[in-house]
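During the reporting period the student researcher (J.K.) took over the structure-prediction task from the postdoctoral fellow and processed the backlog of single-chain submissions. One of the processed entries is reproduced below for the supervisory committee.
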Amino acid sequence: MSLTSNTSNFHNPLVESKQEQLDTIRIPDRVDLRASPRSRQGSPSHSPRLGPSRFINGERSRASFVGAELLRRLWGGRKQQSKRVKRKGGKVWYQKKRVKGVVVVIALVGLFFLVNWFMLLRLQDHRVGLHDRSSRNSSSVSVQGKVKKISKRKKQYNGIYGRMLALAAHALAEGQKKREPKDLWLEPVVPASAWRPCADQRNWEPSEGKNGYIMVTANGGMNQQRVAVCNAVVVARLLNATLVVPKFMYSSVWKDVSQFNDIYQEEHFINYLTPDIRIVKELPEELKSLDLEAIGSVVTDIDIRKEAKPSFYLKNILPNLLQKRVVHFVGFGNRLAFDPIPFQLQRLRCRCNFHALKFVPKIQETAALLLERLRQHSARPGTLDHYLVGPRAVSAMIARSDPSAKASRYLALHLRFEIDMVAHSLCEFGGGEEERQELEAYRQIHFPALTELKKTEKLPSPAMLRSEGLCPLTPEEAILMLAALGFSRKTHIYVAGAQIYGGKARLAALTSLYPNLVTKENLLSSEELEPFMNFSSQLAALDFITCTAADAFAMTDSGSQLSSLVAGYRIYYGGGRMPTIRPNKRRLAAIFLKNNTIEWKVFEQRVRKAVRQTKHIQSRPKARSVYRYPRCKECMCLTD
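J.K. obtained the following structure tokens:
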């Protein structure tokens, strides 16, 4: 979106508003005001000269004629002749009066067109002024004034940040020759590099798994399933049970039939964790015929509280396991606490996530193509490539690369703005009544419990949720954040995520400000993408690898499992050289609320301060996820 087009958009709603006002005025049948917006604006339909004035002049003519007849009868023929002459003169006077009226009307119409033309010229001057440094301040004030008036009349999702996007475009155009801030592509290296991976270290004997078998059917998307798998590994060790290779539940939201071995290397998973637990691919024959639900061996998320402590499993699950020989966990989303938990079990959790789960070659090879194209076919592999795509894919990347090509760094942006996230948030995003109805219909189908809760409980308003930072950032807010942080217009940006709510129109703000913005659909051919179509978890795996390997990663929703896992992986293997942008949404919400008045420089300063405060190096807070915060003694070792 160019700055010129933005300025044009400022004018159009004003024109439309005037049209709506004119539509409420009664217009004479013979006056055609539908030719064009300009003709409607210039219409003199409200002028007293068209309509009432015609009838008043007619009454005067009729009274003059009656008076002439009366005088003719009283004064005779000479007087009659005189009055006829006068009457004739009256008609001439009336005709002249009509001509004058028409001339005045035409003059008023012409004056209106002249003023309208003058105003258009003024708008053009403002467009040019926005590109002129010498008149930057006056142009900015003019743009702010126009958008402030527009925002009071029209609140469409694609126009909420029209003013800020125009200012961002101006700032990016001005800053093309400036250097980016030094800390954009860096972490505080010294404190970050003091932590090194050590979850692969073991200090126990293998578990024999004698107490029975644990089955898990994990729900959710690829990232939620990954967490469930590692939690199941820990529970199996805790209960001295044998783990059956986990299965993945089919979801009406994700609509993916992928199973564990479609995403992860099954043999590597089993072999790597053999020193920790016993893992088998399926139940033994004598247990396959059991009706697990009938015998009470099925345990759902309703039966286990969220983030249950190890003591819960020892007290409630172990006796059932010993009696029935099989326990089947269905769902198993976040059903194991992070604290308190024994040291070695916590380390096993990290070992599973960062070492045991490797993607299958099909995913690794396609992800390698994405990395290769994002880096402009450079021969230099990234810091995390070896861990993500494996040595074989890295060797193939180097063999295909151009040794003379200069490596191009890229930023990965995870836009968690799919319809399921948008609907579940209960927030509003500027789409008006149509948006509210669409999201409510989606909730009724996919989140019926939430719909019932809305009927029985008074939930926080969308405005309250937004002020508390509980709404996902929109694409417009995300791109404004990046521009304010100082990423130049030439930055290569990879956008991760499924179907963005609002479609291409919602991404228009991103592509207009950052033309080097791509997705996996842009970088891969239809033939290369075809094996992954209709498999959302496998597509999510491609996003996981591409985001994790990026030179910088920006999340837009801290509650997103993909963002959390990517951030943790970058900490674990990044050596303090893989910065992650974690916006404080509550502080950003307060800043964005002033989008109609705030100056760009002030916006820049406040956004940078809000993001800078999240970049400090810290160890894992108590009870927080080791997958997201692996800087803890169980997962990483702190060196001197």
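The committee noted the following: The first strand starts at residue 195 and ends at 197.
J.K. will present the remaining backlog at the next meeting.
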